[in-house]
Every structure is written in C-alpha cells, then in structure tokens.
C-alpha cells in the first residue's frame, strides 16, 4: 500500500506491506536506526517515537495506519547542529550507560513534557501537577533501562521540565 508521512520534517512516500510495523519501516526502509527493536511487544519502550506529537511504541503501530501522520524519531529532536534540551541534559547528567534505550527515553521524555494532567502518583487528580521526580518516574515507567541509569534520567528530565 502507498502511504505518505512526515518523518523528522521530511515528506516520505513509501510502499508498505500492510503488516509492516512503523518500527520496521523506520529502521529497514528509511534507515533511521534511532528507534531500537528491544522486545518487539511494546513492553520496553526502546522503540518510542512521537506520532503527531504523542509518544508511542513504534513496534506496535502499523506503518499503513500512519498515512498522513507526522513522525519524530530521536534523529529529528535536534534542530540542525543544536541538540534538543533533553539531549543536552542527558549528556550533562550522564543519563545513559550502554545507550540502547536512550533514543526511546529521549522521545518518551519529549512527549511526556507536553502531556498535561495527573498520573497514578498525583495526589489531587483534578490538578495539573508539578513534574516532581516521582511524577517523572511514573510517567516514564514504560521505558526500561537495563543498566539502571534511572536516577540520572530523572535528573536530566527534571532539569528541562517547565
């Protein structure tokens, strides 16, 4: 099937098998290797990208369903040579070790910063809570890091949070 989507600001027209995941399209057909295939079941978050500004596991999204969508991968977070503030904060706070989960962590954090409303740890469910370390940990809980860099990831995100 022929689809057209914006990937990191570039319009891409591609012919895809209806069964192909967005992750496989990005990695195998568009040579964007930032999103990683970790579990391929939506459990680890290594494949997280932004779809129309919202974070999503690209291993669970069918490419054909993305027709007309805007996709941002970790490669599209920076503006030219200028790193995204989250990327700079991850470097400054050493928020990665092996780096396998880092692209998904960065995309998830970028999406999370734009998501209003409470989470499971918010005391007042009618409030738009401050992004405390507990809120950040809860909101980032879908992104796993086998190295255990969580304290530095939370610190880096907190530095950039509004």
UniProtKB/TrEMBL annotation:
<protein>
    <submittedName>
        <fullName>Xanthine dehydrogenase YagT iron-sulfur-binding subunit</fullName>
    </submittedName>
</protein>
<dbReference type="InterPro" id="IPR036884">
    <property type="entry name" value="2Fe-2S-bd_dom_sf"/>
</dbReference>
<keyword id="KW-0411">Iron-sulfur</keyword>
<comment type="pathway">
    <text>Alkaloid degradation; nicotine degradation.</text>
</comment>
<dbReference type="InterPro" id="IPR012675">
    <property type="entry name" value="Beta-grasp_dom_sf"/>
</dbReference>
<dbReference type="InterPro" id="IPR052914">
    <property type="entry name" value="Aldehyde_Oxdr_Iron-Sulfur"/>
</dbReference>
<dbReference type="GO" id="GO:0046872">
    <property type="term" value="F:metal ion binding"/>
</dbReference>
<dbReference type="InterPro" id="IPR002888">
    <property type="entry name" value="2Fe-2S-bd"/>
</dbReference>
<keyword id="KW-0001">2Fe-2S</keyword>
<dbReference type="Pfam" id="PF00111">
    <property type="entry name" value="Fer2"/>
</dbReference>
<dbReference type="InterPro" id="IPR036010">
    <property type="entry name" value="2Fe-2S_ferredoxin-like_sf"/>
</dbReference>
<feature type="domain" description="2Fe-2S ferredoxin-type">
    <location>
        <begin position="1"/>
        <end position="77"/>
    </location>
</feature>
<dbReference type="Pfam" id="PF01799">
    <property type="entry name" value="Fer2_2"/>
</dbReference>
<dbReference type="GO" id="GO:0051537">
    <property type="term" value="F:2 iron, 2 sulfur cluster binding"/>
</dbReference>
<keyword id="KW-0479">Metal-binding</keyword>
<dbReference type="InterPro" id="IPR001041">
    <property type="entry name" value="2Fe-2S_ferredoxin-type"/>
</dbReference>
<keyword id="KW-0408">Iron</keyword>
<dbReference type="InterPro" id="IPR006058">
    <property type="entry name" value="2Fe2S_fd_BS"/>
</dbReference>
<keyword id="KW-0560">Oxidoreductase</keyword>
<dbReference type="GO" id="GO:0016903">
    <property type="term" value="F:oxidoreductase activity, acting on the aldehyde or oxo group of donors"/>
</dbReference>
């Amino acid at each position: 099937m022929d689809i057209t989507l914006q990937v990191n600001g570039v319009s891409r027209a591609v012919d895809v098998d209806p069964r192909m995941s967005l992750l496989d399209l990005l990695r195998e057909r568009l040579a964007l290797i930032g999103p990683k295939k970790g579990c391929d079941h939506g459990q680890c978050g290594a494949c997280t990208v932004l779809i129309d500004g919202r974070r999503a596991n690209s291993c669970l999204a069918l490419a054909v369903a993305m027709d007309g969508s805007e996709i941002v991968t970790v490669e599209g977070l920076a503006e030219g040579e200028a790193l995204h503030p989250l990327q700079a904060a991850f470097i400054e706070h050493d928020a990665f070790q092996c780096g396998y989960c880092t692209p998904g962590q960065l995309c998830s954090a970028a999406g999370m910063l734009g998501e209003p409303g409470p989470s499971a740890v918010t005391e007042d469910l009618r409030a738009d809570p401050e992004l405390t370390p507990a809120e950040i940990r809860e909101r980032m809980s879908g992104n796993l890091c086998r190295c255990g860099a969580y304290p530095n990831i939370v610190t880096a995100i907190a530095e950039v949070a509004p």
